[in-house]
Write a structure and sequence with these properties.
rod-shaped; three-stranded antiparallel sheet; five-stranded antiparallel sheet; alpha+beta
Amino acid sequence: LGVVTALPAGVMLRLRFQKSGHNFEFPILLSPVLDPYVIAGAHIFPPAIIYAVLHGIVSPAARALHIRRTSVLRAKQIESVQRELESSLEAIEMIRHVAERKMRREAELLSAPPSVGSDQAGLVIAKALYGDAELLKDDRIQVETFDACIVRSPEDIVQRGITCVDVTIPVAYACDKSSLEFHAGFPKSKLFGFFDPCPGREKVLVIFYRSAGRWLRVQLADTEGCRLPGGGRGRGMVLDAADAIVHMVLEPSLREYLDS
């Protein structure tokens, strides 16, 4: 957009467009003479009109379209998450008794005196959480987080906006003979009893477990491999025995295994 003033052309408004590497120009004669009012109007009104159209019509319409598309996409994601959650809850109920029996056995190994020649020291999965990496950072996991991650029905995903879920049963089920292994390169949302609670976001798996008389915590990226107990640098951060999570969440889980 430009304004041209010249003799004998007068005052001319010149519109320029560029499309596919080609330039298009459309001159519009506003006045055959150099009229100061026309010149001033040509410099003020066209930019003002363009600004008003862009900010008063085009931008609001684009925002409304984006919100609508986002809402439709979110609704589809919620439907997909709810379907996956239904399958996950069914799978968890199928393996619950086996997983609890395994953990009961592991808890007994932990409480029993070590036997000569045995390499099974016991590995109790007290709690495991899976979901949004931002919400499962070290400093953001509190006692209340564990209850907030319990999903009882597909409606919880919408009503409570859950993006992190309790996967203690599937993780305990995967434990075998005081050992737990995750293979690298395989998303944990595809594991039996898991599902993706927050599509499109970075996810982690956080496991709280007891081994060799200590409470430990490990965090794994979605496709990260690991073998517990041990398994490389950074595996098994020891928790303070005075930690509220240990007293209010983990110890009661261990006693529940032993008392069942």
